[in-house]
Design brief:
single chain, about 450 residues, alpha/beta, TIM Barrel, 2 domains, binds pyridoxal-5'-phosphate
């Protein structure tokens, strides 16, 4: 029995798959392309804001920009007055260039260089300080306004993390901030945890609230905390996912490759997106009897969050054309017109597991299931978009399309390069306008 991992049904996606548009775009671009759906981003953003409102918690949502490079999403942030989390000079310029205000930016990332710190400070952005030496670079910036900062807390439950300040370093940092008077505005504390668990986030948030109270004793502002990102996305139904985890093995993959199930992204999450925020706010921080939401209100602490992947749930997919199909004993190898660099899970010894959808311009009736892995158009044995032998409803043919669903969060463009002189996939924005679907390029081509 072939293991399948079909993505959750999605009417907008299914409508696109049934029509001609994706075939036309593949023809027009002559290569792979990604499409992004900004209306989904808007809905996800609104859901996070609603979760804050319902809990009676004042807060701000910052889109973690590293999750996707499309201009369309930053444009939506500017339009909605949302914040953006940037971690490099390039991301800062992109956000400002698309109309996000400097004061709506939070600058994260380790060991930020002086030029980035300086522009961020002049723009009134909030800077999450990751180390004492970064703090001293900030205190030496000669800028005509107080620099807005958060102090990033080393997560005591994630001892392998290379980010944040330890308890001793935090004590030192607080004293330096107090001594620096008008040069800094110490607005609070931050963390970002890997993984998707609720309770560790609630616990650490509770701890950061206490740190705010402690910092205020030194005369510091300390009225907000950022709990970073890590709100899960639910890609596939529970049953398919649990069956897959229990049964998958080397026979399910080309070249009998083996994956460690712990390296897979948790493609099914019972609590995801804005619901994960609700759960974090409703849980009780360790050692306290009150939900986090109440604790925040009582202490007068605002909640900042930096979702990346979760704001992009359902907000884009990747389309490749089949370039060739060949048989191996028991399965086949489909080669597409792009590369595995457009599916970035390989950074994590893993692969992107939701099943790609096979679209054909020439439907036929007498179809039989055909299992195949999916390779890229390169000369590397390691360039597979999918090592898994996917159960396609029939043998793919040259000119068919493979649509990898829900790739906007981290998959589509983090790792892309013009390897082999293959063109980078085009990026198109698809949106509703007066009741019909229209498309445009994400960025205007240079003239
Ligand atoms: C990557 C990152 C995020 C976003 O994480 P998601 O899992 O995409 O929500 C938020 N904050 C910081 C500091 C990050 O490094």
């Amino acid at each position: 029995m072939a293991l399948t991992l079909p993505a959750h049904p999605d009417p907008l996606h299914d409508g696109l798959a049934a029509g001609d548009l994706l075939h036309d775009l593949s023809h027009a671009f002559g290569g792979p392309f990604h499409f992004v759906l900004p209306e989904r981003f808007d809905a996800n953003l609104a859901a996070f804001r609603t979760a804050l409102d319902e809990a009676g918690v004042e807060g701000t949502v910052y889109f973690a920009k590293k999750a996707n490079k499309a201009a369309a999403f930053v444009e939506r942030c500017a339009h909605a007055g949302a914040g953006v989390d940037v971690a490099s000079h390039g991301e800062l310029r992109e956000a400002l260039g698309h109309g996000v205000r400097g004061e709506d930016l939070v600058v994260t990332g380790p060991a930020k260089a002086e030029p980035l710190l300086r522009v961020a400070a002049l723009q009134g952005a909030l800077i999450a300080v990751d180390s004492l030496d970064e703090l001293s670079r900030i205190l030496h910036l000669d800028v005509p306004r107080p620099v807005r900062i958060l102090l990033r807390r080393f997560p005591p439950t994630h001892t392998g993390s290379r980010f944040g300040l330890t308890d001793d370093q935090l004590d030192t940092a607080l004293l330096r901030c107090a001594a620096a008077k008008e040069r800094v505005r110490m607005e609070g504390f931050s963390f970002h945890l890997s993984g998707y668990d609720v309770q560790p986030r609630t616990d650490l948030a509770g701890e950061l609230v206490e740190l705010c109270l402690k910092a205020r004793l030194l005369g510091l502002q300390a009225d907000r905390i950022s709990i970073g990102g890590g709100f899960a996305v639910d890609y596939v139904p529970a049953e398919a996912w649990h069956t897959f985890l229990a049964e998958q093995g080397p026979d399910d993959y080309h070249a009998r490759k083996s994956f460690s199930t712990s390296d897979f992204y948790p493609y099914h999450s019972p609590v995801a997106g804005a619901d994960a925020l609700r759960a974090i706010l409703a849980a009780r921080p360790h050692g306290t009897g009150e939900p986090l939401a109440g604790r925040l209100r009582e202490a007068g602490v605002m909640l900042l969050l930096e979702p990346g992947r979760a704001l992009l749930a359902g907000a884009g997919s990747s389309v490749f054309a089949v370039q060739g199909v060949k048989d191996r004993p028991g399965y086949g190898i489909v080669t597409v017109d792009g590369s595995s660099l457009s599916l970035s899970e390989q950074w994590f010894n893993s692969e992107y597991l939701p099943d790609p959808l096979l679209l054909t311009p020439h439907p036929d009736q007498d179809a039989a299931e055909y299992r195949a892995c999916v390779g890229g158009a390169s000369c590397l044995d390691s360039d597979l978009l999918t090592w898994r032998k996917i159960a396609f409803p029939r043998r793919p043919r040259v000119g068919d399309l493979l649509v990898y669903p829900n790739t906007a969060g981290y998959q589509m463009d983090s790792n892309e390069s013009p390897f082999h002189d293959l063109p980078l996939p085009a990026k198109v924005v698809i949106h509703h306008e007066n009741g019909r679907l229209r498309w445009r390029l994400d960025r205007r081509p240079a003239l």
